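Lecture 7 notes. Example A: sequence first, then its structure tokens.
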Amino acid sequence: MGQIRRRVIQIETLEQRLAQRAQEFRDRAKAMPPGVEKEALLQRANQAETGAHMSEWLLSPRPQALME
């Protein structure tokens, strides 16, 4: 018998969740000393923000060229 798929209803939009996650990464990185782990958290924060912006851009009524 197959697995039962767990359904989750999202209350916030993807963009909101990504922006919130980016802020969490930045807050955690702020409390860390300089090093590889801090840089990794900051990179993940940048990736989450980029994902949020890309999603907003794709959902806009008339997506504009990226290099205007």
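Example B, a different protein, same format:
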Amino acid sequence: MNRTEIKQTLDGPLQEEGYKFMAAVFAVHNELGGGLEEAVYQECLELELFDQCIPFVAKQELTIQYKGQELKKRYTPDLCVYGGIVVELKAVYQLLPEHEAQLFNYMRLSQKRVGYLVNLAALKKAEWRRYVL
């Protein structure tokens, strides 16, 4: 995946899985509301995913290679859902370009085509974006 275009879209691969994942996100936000710390949302979302039988892996480290050498530095996305969706959770005032860049790096390094950037700190409703390579 070299210099591949990443676009924000609601359609494409893993669409049905994305709907189910976002239902879990909305369940968490409806229960807790906005304004809490990211770690609280992370833990609650993991519980919700488990309750809804949605397969996920939390905080799995991604390795980085440089000229065939594995670096000590690791990147750690918040979640990988359904084996193909990378999720970066935030609890911030608003999503920024650097949050997108972080997700894009995770997508590239994990070689996953679909990524979700989710901000749960918003008071009225969760803010989210879906990206596809």
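Note on Example B: The chain has a mean pLDDT of 91. DSSP finds three helices and eight strands in the chain.
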